[in-house]
Amino acid sequence: MIAEPERLDIANLHFSGLFWRYLNRTSENEMLVRISKTQGNSTRTYCFDTLDTGETSINFPDLFFQKECTTIKFEKKIRVVRMSLHIGRTIKSVYVKQQNVLSFGQRLASVFCASAALRSLSGAATLLQEGYAIARPVAAVEYRRWGVLITSFYVSEEITGAKTIADYWREDLVARKGTEGQVRRRRVATKLARLFKSLHERRIYHNDLKADNILALEKGPAAEEILNLIDLQGVRKCYYLSRRRRIKNLAQINRTLGNHLTPKEKLTFLQAYVGDGIFFRRKRRHLVRSILEETSRQMTREKLRHRPTENHAFFEIAPAPH
Question: Least crowded by CB within 10 Å, which of 42, 131, 215, 230?
Answer without folding.
Answer: 131
